[in-house]
């Protein structure tokens, strides 16, 4: 029980550990994905930073260019202001230079117009870059919020796993403490068992010496007193009635009952499979309610309709076999006559399978030739064809071996006893083969039904029928697996029980001798009942004899008392006076009369006692002494028999105790090994837990550092964006003022 509990606990721990490892893999994958995403975000930030630097450089160059233009405009305005007063003084010279100034002004106007256009273009580029930067900033903010949320979720998962690991460690430590306590208890019990074993060995040695002496005495008595040996000829010895083994018969009946239940499940599954197959033929590939089905399927349906007359006898044959195994019989292959009937019913069913197999294969070919049959459905039909052939072959193989097992009950030389074990082993192999074939049929038919349900012409009737066939195939698969496991678990007992038969002989020679043995067994049982009745009668007679002797002694004592009383009365009569003598005499006469009447009644009731009571005192004393010693001898004989039975019981108990001690030693060693393995598993789990915990902590620290760096980068970008905005606003204001 302790080993089973430990195995169950460690299986649960292994399952939890596998789940945690799977979760760990998922978390590792998530962390790797987040690292990849963070790297991609870093690259994006780097690219944006580079673009911002380029824009900043362009902005600086534009600002410098604007300052140069502003200075040039101021210089031009100053020159224009200086040229106006000079024009007043020198009108003549102004007229000559007006043309030159006009040309310069036009050049300056063109240059200024170009600069204005370039400034507008730069403003548009800056506005677009600002909008793009805002969009990127919004995306990065949403991505940052998502990453923070995922980080919180991962942190919650890691906290839950850490808590679960701590609970598992605590539970394992508690289990370890319990196992240590249990180990100490087992050690104490082992010490006690050793002490008891030593005592039992001493007692066993004494008993062995006693039994050896008694065996030698018994052998000498047998050699001197037994006149003949009736076990010389094996063919006559086979007629001897074996010792009745009630436990063996009850176990065989229990096994037969389990086999009957499994056969009933198989019969039910086979009936459903054949019946639903018949219904399927009526609706696919052609529905008989709409159109006429092919002659092949009509014949196949007709044969399938007869399946009950071949399948039901299997259950009936197994039921008759179960009823033939009773507590009073001897169950070996030579006496199981009903196994031949079951074999005949199985042969009849195999003939039915052979008859329907060609029609079944042709029906599947007809389905493959239909217009709506796909390549996948055609492949499933071919696989089912092969499975049906295998199923028929497995049933034929199983019937062959069951027929061989039925031969010893009908034909003496049909099967040698040396081949019984190999035939039983082959029966188990055939049952496992039947289970494998049914698993293949279940798998292929499930795939076939799935493909047919996807067809456009699939009706609800076809879907329901396919589901029914699939359920019957699953039931047959489960039944075949159960009966195969059942036979494998009991095949060793079947092989060992074949030697159950007459002692000091090779077994039952022929079914006729087995039948004679069963008749002798019934006669022996009747004879034992008669002996028991005789024994009861003898015990009753001895009890009545003892009561008779008791009442004889009581009568003798009463007679002696009466004689003494009469003598005393006569003495009183002689010693009394004459006047009183008359009354006393009358009184004595009455007493004597009453005593005479008592004696007469005692004679009437105890006539045989009266005849023995008249014997002399010497004879009665010798009888009493003889009876006393006979009773004492009987008592000592019964005590000796009781002591013999107690010694045999004590010897059996000593053997059982020694076996229990050996089993206890083995279980102790197994538990020690299990504890060692458990401690190793606990240490391994603790190491893996610490390793996983450290890896999670490292990953969390890396993620936190990464998030901190991302936050710093984003803050720097926000500052740069704010400075760019301020500078762009200042430039725009200057341009507007200009």
From TrEMBL:
<feature type="region of interest" description="Disordered">
    <location>
        <begin position="84"/>
        <end position="104"/>
    </location>
</feature>
<keyword id="KW-0175">Coiled coil</keyword>
<dbReference type="Pfam" id="PF10212">
    <property type="entry name" value="PPP1R21_helical"/>
</dbReference>
<dbReference type="GO" id="GO:0003723">
    <property type="term" value="F:RNA binding"/>
</dbReference>
<feature type="region of interest" description="Disordered">
    <location>
        <begin position="718"/>
        <end position="738"/>
    </location>
</feature>
<dbReference type="Pfam" id="PF10205">
    <property type="entry name" value="KLRAQ"/>
</dbReference>
<feature type="coiled-coil region">
    <location>
        <begin position="527"/>
        <end position="561"/>
    </location>
</feature>
<dbReference type="InterPro" id="IPR019348">
    <property type="entry name" value="PPP1R21_six_helix"/>
</dbReference>
<keyword id="KW-0967">Endosome</keyword>
<dbReference type="InterPro" id="IPR019343">
    <property type="entry name" value="PPP1R21_N"/>
</dbReference>
<protein>
    <recommendedName>
        <fullName>Protein phosphatase 1 regulatory subunit 21</fullName>
    </recommendedName>
</protein>
<dbReference type="GO" id="GO:0016020">
    <property type="term" value="C:membrane"/>
</dbReference>
<feature type="coiled-coil region">
    <location>
        <begin position="162"/>
        <end position="196"/>
    </location>
</feature>
<dbReference type="Pfam" id="PF21636">
    <property type="entry name" value="PPP1R21_C"/>
</dbReference>
<feature type="compositionally biased region" description="Low complexity">
    <location>
        <begin position="95"/>
        <end position="104"/>
    </location>
</feature>
<dbReference type="InterPro" id="IPR049372">
    <property type="entry name" value="PPP1R21_C"/>
</dbReference>
<feature type="domain" description="Protein phosphatase 1 regulatory subunit 21 N-terminal">
    <location>
        <begin position="11"/>
        <end position="112"/>
    </location>
</feature>
<feature type="coiled-coil region">
    <location>
        <begin position="3"/>
        <end position="72"/>
    </location>
</feature>
<feature type="coiled-coil region">
    <location>
        <begin position="654"/>
        <end position="695"/>
    </location>
</feature>
<dbReference type="InterPro" id="IPR040024">
    <property type="entry name" value="PPP1R21"/>
</dbReference>
<dbReference type="GO" id="GO:0005769">
    <property type="term" value="C:early endosome"/>
</dbReference>
<keyword id="KW-0694">RNA-binding</keyword>
């Amino acid at each position: 029980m302790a080993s089973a509990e430990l195995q169950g606990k460690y299986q649960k721990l292994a399952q939890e550990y596998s789940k945690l490892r799977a979760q760990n893999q998922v978390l590792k994958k998530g962390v790797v994905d987040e690292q990849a995403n963070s790297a991609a975000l870093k690259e994006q930030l780097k690219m944006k930073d580079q673009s911002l630097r380029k824009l900043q450089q362009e902005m600086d160059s534009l600002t410098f260019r604007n300052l140069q233009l502003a200075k040039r405009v101021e210089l031009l305005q100053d020159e224009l202001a200086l040229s106006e007063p000079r024009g007043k003084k020198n009108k003549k010279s102004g007229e000559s230079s007006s043309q030159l100034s006009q040309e310069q002004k036009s050049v300056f106007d063109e240059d200024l117009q170009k600069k204005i256009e370039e400034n507008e273009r730069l403003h548009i580029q800056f506005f677009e870059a600002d909008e793009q930067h805002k969009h990127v900033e919004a995306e990065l903010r949403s991505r940052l919020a998502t990453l923070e949320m995922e980080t919180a979720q991962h942190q919650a998962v890691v906290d839950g796993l850490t808590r679960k690991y701590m609970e598992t460690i605590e539970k394992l430590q508690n289990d370890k403490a319990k196992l240590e306590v249990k180990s100490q208890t087992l050690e104490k019990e082992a010490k006690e068992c050793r002490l008891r074993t030593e005592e039992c060995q001493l007692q066993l040695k004494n008993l062995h010496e006693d039994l050896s002496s008694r065996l030698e005495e018994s052998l000498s008595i047998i050699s001197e007193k037994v006149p003949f040996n009736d076990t010389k000829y094996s063919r006559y010895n086979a007629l001897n009635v074996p010792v009745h083994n009630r436990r063996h018969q009850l176990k065989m009946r229990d096994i037969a009952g389990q086999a009957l239940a499994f056969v009933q499940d198989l019969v039910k599954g086979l009936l459903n499979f054949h019946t639903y197959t018949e219904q399927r033929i009526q609706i696919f590939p052609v529905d008989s309610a709409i159109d006429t089905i092919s002659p092949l399927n009509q014949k196949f349906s007709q044969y399938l309709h007869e399946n009950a007359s071949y399948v039901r006898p299997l259950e009936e044959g197994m039921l008759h076999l179960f009823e033939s195994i009773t507590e009073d019989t001897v169950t070996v292959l030579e006496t199981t006559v009903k196994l031949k009937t079951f074999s005949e019913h199985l042969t009849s069913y195999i003939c039915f399978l052979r008859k329907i197999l060609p029609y079944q294969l042709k029906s599947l070919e007809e389905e493959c030739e239909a217009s709506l049959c796909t390549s996948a459905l055609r492949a499933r039909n071919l696989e089912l064809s092969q499975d049906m052939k295998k199923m028929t072959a497995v049933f034929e193989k199983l019937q062959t071996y069951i027929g061989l097992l039925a031969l010893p009950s009908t034909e003496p030389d049909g099967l040698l006893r040396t081949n019984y074990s190999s035939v039983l082993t082959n029966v188990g192999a055939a049952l496992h083969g039947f289970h494998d074939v049914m698993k293949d049929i279940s798998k292929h038919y499930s795939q076939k039904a799935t493909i047919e349900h996807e067809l456009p012409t699939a009706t609800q009737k076809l879907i329901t029928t396919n589901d029914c066939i699939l359920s019957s195939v699953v039931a047959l698969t489960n039944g075949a697996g159960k009966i195969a496991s059942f036979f494998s678990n009991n095949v060793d007992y079947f092989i060992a029980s074949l030697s159950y038969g007459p002692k000091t002989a090779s077994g039952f020679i022929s079914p006729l001798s087995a039948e004679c043995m069963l008749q002798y067994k019934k006669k022996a049982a009747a004879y034992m009942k008669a002996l028991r009745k005789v024994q009861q009668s003898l015990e009753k007679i001895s009890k009545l004899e003892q009561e008779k002797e008791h009442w004889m002694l009581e009568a003798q004592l009463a007679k002696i008392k009466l004689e003494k009383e009469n003598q005393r009365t006569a003495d009183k009569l002689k010693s009394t006076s004459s006047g009183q003598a008359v009354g006393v005499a009358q009184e004595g006469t009455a007493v004597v009369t009453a005593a005479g009447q008592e004696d007469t009644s005692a004679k009437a009731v105890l006539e045989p006692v009266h005849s023995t009571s008249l014997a002399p005192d010497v004879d009665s004393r010798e009888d009493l002494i003889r009876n006393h010693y006979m009773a004492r001898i009987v008592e000592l004989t019964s005590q000796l028999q009781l002591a013999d039975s107690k010694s045999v019981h004590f010897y059996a108990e000593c053997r059982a105790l020694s076996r229990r001690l050996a089993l206890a030693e083995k279980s102790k060693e197994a538990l020690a090994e299990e504890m060692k393995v458990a401690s190793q598993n606990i240490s391994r789990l603790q190491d893996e837990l610490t390793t996983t915990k450290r890896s999670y902590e490292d990953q969390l620290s890396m993620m936190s550092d990464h998030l901190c760096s991302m936050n710093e980068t984003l803050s720097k970008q926000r500052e740069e964006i704010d400075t760019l905005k301020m500078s762009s606003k200042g430039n725009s204001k200057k341009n507007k003022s200009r």
